[in-house]
Amino acid sequence: MSIVHHGHQRPAPCDTQQAFFRTSASLITSTPSTSYAGSPLLCSAVSQKHRERSVCVKATRTQSAEGSADVSLSVNHLKNSHGIYDTDNTDLLPEDHSNFVKFFRAASSYITGHRGSTFVLVLPGQVFLQKHLLNRFIQDVTLLHGLGTRLVLIVGAKTQTDLILQANKQSPRYVGGYRVTDEVGMQAATQAAGAARVEIEAQLSRALAVQMVRRHTRSTPDQEYHYGPAIRVVSGNYVTGRRRGVVGGVDFGSTGSVRFVQVTGIREQLDAGHIVLLTNIAYSAAGEPLNCNIFDVASHAAIELSADKLCFLTLDEVKALQLPSWLPINDAEALIDRHMMDQEGLTCPTDDRPPGSVPSQQQLKVPAVRSGEIVLDLDCWEALQFPSSLLTSVLVCRNGVKRAHLVDARVDGGLILELYSRDGSGTMISTDFYEGIRPASPVDADSIAELLAPLAAAGITKPRSRSEIVSELSNFTVLEREAKVLACALLLHLGEARDGVVCGEIAAFCVDPGFRGSGRGDSLLDYVEQAARAKGIRRLMLLTTRTADWFEQRDFQAAGVAHANPLLPEARSAKIDSSRGSKLYSKELLDFSGPGRAALSTPLPGKRIGF
C-alpha cells in the first residue's frame, strides 16, 4: 500500500543566485520538453483574503574599492498569514539580466548532468521543527523535482519523538547509540513520523499560481488552461527492519535496525515521476512497526538504490568542523582517524564486545555485512561523538555512492547552490575524482618527455627537449597511478591580452594511449582549469593542429589562425611558428562567484569536479 498526494510549492526570498534560478524555474517546470512529470514553481496557494503582498525589487549599484560598479539585487518580501513568502510579482530589472544569464549558463551543465539522477535527501528532525527551514527545503525539493531529478526524501523524527514523550511526562531513554523504545515510546515515534509525513505531503500539495499557469503553460483543445500534474508524493512500507532485541541485558523493545529497502518498489515510483518519502519507521517480517535510526535508513536507501548523491541538511554539528568545499573520502577518513586519536577512553559496547571495549578505526567507519545486509554499529558512532551525517557520507561513498553532500540548512537555497554551482555552498564528500593528480616534480621529467615524444614525432605537439621540460616543470601537472605518470598538462600564464583579459595557455596536454576514454583527460583538464581560475586567468587558450575536436566538446571555441591572433598577448604571438599553421581555440573561464559570495580568486585547484 502506498499513499499518493499532490502538491506544488513556492519559494522563499533568497539572494541573487537563488532568486534568478527560482524565478526561471516556473518556466522550466511548467513547460516540460519531455513527458517527465515536472512540477511548477513560484506558486500561490493561499487565497486572496489571506494574502499580504508587498514585493519590492530594486537594483543597487555600489562602487568597489577599485571603483568598478557592482550590481546586486535586493528583494523585499512580506509574509502572508501562513508564514509563506509571496514571490508571484518578483521580476528582474534590465540591469539584472546579465547576471541572470551568467548564472544560468554556469548552471546549464549541471541541469543537464543531474537530469534523471537519483538523489537521497535527508531532513533531520531538528531541522524539520524549524518551519522557515522546512519551507525553504520544500521549495528546493520542488525545484529539484521540476528539473528532472529522482528524489527520495528521508525525514527524521528523533527530536519530535523526544518532545512528545516529554510532553507526556516521559523521559527518552538511550543506551549507547540506540533508543530504548517501549510501548509508549513507539506510540510517540509513530505519531512523530506520521505528523512529519503529513506535513511534507501537505507542503508539496500547494497549487500553482493561476497567473503563471495562464502565461506560461500549455493548453489543450478541450481545456482552456493547462494546470499541469501536481507533485505526487508516495510513502509506504518500503523499509524492512528487524528488532534489535536484548543486548547486554537491555531490552530495546520496538527499536529496530534496517535490513533493506524495497528497491524495486521505490524505483517503480521514481520511474513514474513520483517523490518517495521515507521516515524512521520500518516494518518487520512479523508485520510490526519498528523505530529505526534515520541514518540507518539513509545509508541503506542510498547504497541499495545506487543513488548518485546522498544529501544531508545539517546545523551546528557540522559547521563547527569548518570543512572545506570538497573533502576526498581519504581525507574524510583521515579526519575521523585524527578525531579518534583525540578521544581518550573511547569505548564501544556492541553485540560482540562487552561494554568498555575499544573499537577499531575500521569498525567505526565500515559497516558489517551479514547475509548480504549492511549492519551499522551505532554504538561505535555514538562513542565517537562525531556528526553522524559525516560518518554516513563516508560509509555510502565507500559502498558505491558517488557523492555525499553536507549542506547547512540555514543557507537559503543551499541545496540549489550545492548542486547547481561549481563551488557549492556546503561540503562534498566523494571518491577522489582527482586521485593521482598533482603538480609535477623533478622525478617526473623523464616520464613527461616519454609521454610527449610520440605526439611531437607526429606533429601534434611542439617538440620539447628534456631541458625545456625541466625548465617548465613548475607549470606542469601530472596524473599518476601506481607510480606511473599517465597524463600531463602544461599551464602557462600569458598576462593580459590586447583586450585586457588575463590569458593562460594550456599546452603539452597528453593522456597515455592505453588509458584514453577512461575520463582521466576530463579530470586533468578540469583540475587545470580550476588552477587557472586560482591564478586569476579568465581566458584559457589552446594552440593545436590535430586535437581540436576533443577540446571543442569541452567548450573551447575556434578563434582562427593562432599566428598574429589579436586574442593572444603580443609577446606570445611573436613566439608562434607560423609554418605549423596552428589554430587557436579559447575558452572563457566563468567566474562562479555571485553577489554575497566570496570571489573565486584563491580556490584550491581541483576543489570540485563534474556533477
UniProtKB/TrEMBL annotation:
This is amino-acid N-acetyltransferase. GO terms for biological process: L-arginine biosynthetic process. PANTHER family: AMINO-ACID ACETYLTRANSFERASE, AMINO-ACID ACETYLTRANSFERASE NAGS1, CHLOROPLASTIC-RELATED. Residues 435-611 form the N-acetyltransferase domain. It catalyses: L-glutamate + acetyl-CoA = N-acetyl-L-glutamate + CoA + H(+). Its EC number is 2.3.1.1. GO terms for cellular component: cytoplasm. GO terms for molecular function: L-glutamate N-acetyltransferase activity. It comes from the Eukaryota. It comes from Symbiochloris irregularis. InterPro entries: AceGlu_kinase-like_sf (IPR036393), Acyl_CoA_acyltransferase (IPR016181), Asp/Glu/Uridylate_kinase (IPR001048), GNAT_dom (IPR000182), NH2A_AcTrfase (IPR010167). NCBIfam families: N-Ac-Glu-synth. Belongs to the acetyltransferase family. ArgA subfamily. The keyword Protease does not apply. Pfam families: AA_kinase (PF00696), Acetyltransf_1 (PF00583). Pathway: Amino-acid biosynthesis; L-arginine biosynthesis; N(2)-acetyl-L-ornithine from L-glutamate: step 1/4. Keywords: Acyltransferase, Transferase. PROSITE patterns: GNAT. Transmembrane segments: none annotated.
